[in-house]
What we know:
β2 and β3 (73-74) form a beta hairpin. Helix content is 49%, strand content 22%. Strands 1, 2, 3, 4, 5 and 6 form a six-stranded mixed sheet that branches. It is globular, with a radius of gyration of 14 Å. The two termini are 23 Å apart. The protein is α/β, with parallel strands linked by helices.
Amino acid sequence: MKADTLTMAYIETLTDLLTPSHVHVRLRATTKSALLAELAKRCAAASGVPEAALAAALATREALGSTGFGHGVAVPHARLPGLTRPFCAVGVLDKPVAYDAVDGQPVDLVFLLLSPDGASSTHLALLAAASRKLRQPDVAQAIRQASTPEAVVAALVG
């Protein structure tokens, strides 16, 4: 399968995984750690991962290097034992927070990806698909301007 075809297949998978109930607009956090803790709190029940385990997994991954890839976007992610299928969520912050992103810019748009432990190829492909979409300035801008979870989903997967 060609890379573009593979990317489109995983974007379709993102469409299946991302629902409006997994979108959090107007998040308020003042630090990177507070943002990750807030995501863990909001996503624990929906993902089936206990809040403390989710927060610890995100912090552990972030300690390896920042998941802020630039232009105000971060893609925190983790692989977790016990998770049966990938989970994703989107957060749009009221105000950007310092995130140690590669370009030094603060982050106001977050795409969270959780995958089952051992699903490395799926995890990497979903990360790539999400990153490709979020690197498109028009997509990122549409997400930032969206006022409802449904509009965020439409901007990301439409």
